[in-house]
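Worked Example 4.2. Read the sequence first, then its structure tokens.
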Amino acid sequence: MPLFGSNKKRMERYLKKYSTIKTIVVCGSYGRKSAIRALGYVLGEDLKITMGINKNFVEDAIVLDYNSGNEFPDIDPDILIITACETDEEAQRYFALANRSQYVLLDFNDVPQEYAKYLQNPNVITYGNEFPADYYFENEWMTVEGCTGNIVSPEREKIHVGHIKVIGEYNLRPLIMAAAVGKLFQIPRDRIKEGIKSYVPLHGRMSPARGLRGSIIIDDSASSSKTSVKYGLQAIYGLDANVRILVAKDVSKLQKVNYDLMSEVLVMGERPTDMKVNSKVKFFADEIEILNYLTPRLETDAIVLLEIPLPELIQSYIW
């Protein structure tokens, strides 16, 4: 439900009335929806947790999505999560709220250290791809069907998780964060593991599917952040494939491509006259032209990363 504008005062009154409810605020330039989804899966194993007010029962915790462009309830969060920060203006807004929070969780990889000058709260927990983040993931293996490994805590306690339905280190971070929040709520380790194992990412966010002639299609068409292609490419570079193809929505993503690891890059739009492009890049007027070109080229052990929706290529999603 919306939490801003006319609902601002209502939310403040509700939280004042039910003062035992814990407030978890998620903010960031991108990654908020995946973070909120991961919190629901992991904390929901033990807590009554909702997104906003539920009239039917009093929650243990409420998750609020903080959008710095909207009016926000005047509260001091119990936990503030910052998933990413791209500008100094955003940093000042996020960290002003962080300094009023009991605990702050920062994405070690996507919140630049230069913004630490705005942070005065000593209760900071970082999470990220690897040490020295407080919480990080030890990867054992990763395929198009997901991954397995250990979430490592600051005490170097390892939570071994079996098959996780995510591809790529970036997509693991919401679950690492949710495990850290679970520890703050003293949720038992086995319950945290169950929540992580049951997690299913948002559809169209690095969703693997089987395509024609044994090919693998990675549907990332629902991702909207500026970094989605960078992280999507990093993920498929690490997967075994004879052919790797990117279908990009525009030319702005071409600078993120490692052409030594890619077979082709197909771009929807006109070829820019003032930009030098790699010989592996081809331009198409619309989705139909891309489909006509790409369909006969799909083969076993080919991986296609889709930035635009092309359902005609997909036979069935893997999860």
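Now turn to a second chain, presented in exactly the same format:
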Amino acid sequence: MSVRNEKCANCDAAIGKLEQAYVWQDRVVCEACHRNLQDHPTPTIEVPPPLRGPPPLRGPPPPRTPGVPVCLACGGPMDKSKVHEGSSLLAGCALLVIGLAVCAVGAIIWPLLLVGVPCIIVSLFMGGHRRPVWKCRACGAIINRA
């Protein structure tokens, strides 16, 4: 008499001596699990192909124009451009309104003109600042100009 010590690979239950063992995808399972697996087969999962990295950044360099600087990142031609920075337009407008209001009151009380007029002059120069740069046509890289 042989003794079987088999366990179901699905539910880990012991399969008795008098019970029939079933094979499901190269594994031994009990009758209940075999019936359940036949009624509800496990879906196969498609594994997507491995992702490829991004295309190389450097291709053949574009044709070079004499006298035009070349981008260090991609080798493309660069153009002269300006970058706007530090716009304080709202503060300038507020200072202009305050200066005009102080000047209007200053028409009655003349020493206030000494505050109102400088407020108006300072507000005219609060627009921001532009710095000269080289900008790449191909990749958009920016390098400061001297």
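Notes for the reader: Residues 78-144 form one domain. The CA atoms of residues 72 and 141 lie 9 Å apart.
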